[in-house]
What we know:
Layout: H1 3-44, E1 47-49, E2 52-54, H2 57-105, H3 118-124, E3 127-128, E4 132-138, E5 143-145, H4 159-162, H5 164-173, E6 178-185, E7 191-200, E8 206-213
Antiparallel strand pairs: 1-2, 3-4, 4-5, 4-8, 6-7, 7-8
Amino acid sequence: MNPNKEEFQWQKRKKLEIGLLPKLLLGVFIPIVIVFFIIGTMVFFSWDLGSIRLTSIKDIGSGSLKDLSATSLKESKSALDRLGEKIILEKSMDVATQMEIFIKSHPKMKKDDYSRDPWLKAIAVQKVGETGYTAIHDDKGINYFHVNPQIVGTDLHDLSTKLPAFWKILEASLKGPASGYYDWKDADGKIRSKYMYLSPVKDTDLIVAATTYIDEFFKTDKGH
């Protein structure tokens, strides 16, 4: 076989192989780079093309996490609110039962003497939560026991204009058990939500109101 011919064929094959390399790069490597670029863009970048909005996977995940956190926080607060409501309700009913037992065990005691009896007062005014308390009024709206002595003996109808939300709940209690939320202004002017439950004292015309700030039941730091 002619050596020059073999040399020529070998060089031809070599050129052919070298010519395939760019084609392989164009056909395999570059598409891979493009795919990775597209995936990276989808993961890390959002695009706003006027009427078309392309949201990145990162932003979608971040938004979903924020929504999940907000939902969890809302559900947690709701659960703690319900727990607080239950505690206030039970306190109101417990004091009503204690009042009933005391009054029945003192059948000769007149209603006008209730407010002057220290034992009955200790039953009537009890602590609820951190700052709350129980108070007693009758079905005519006259207060008999309160943590503030200046309120004892007053007609609670007078609060209907000054504290309409509070009065609406209290007014309902004149006909039976009642409960609800109302806003209350602190001494520093801050407005916070209170919850109140009112229970009638069996076989009397007295009503026990238990109330406190609902946020006391989901504070993690008792010092604040």
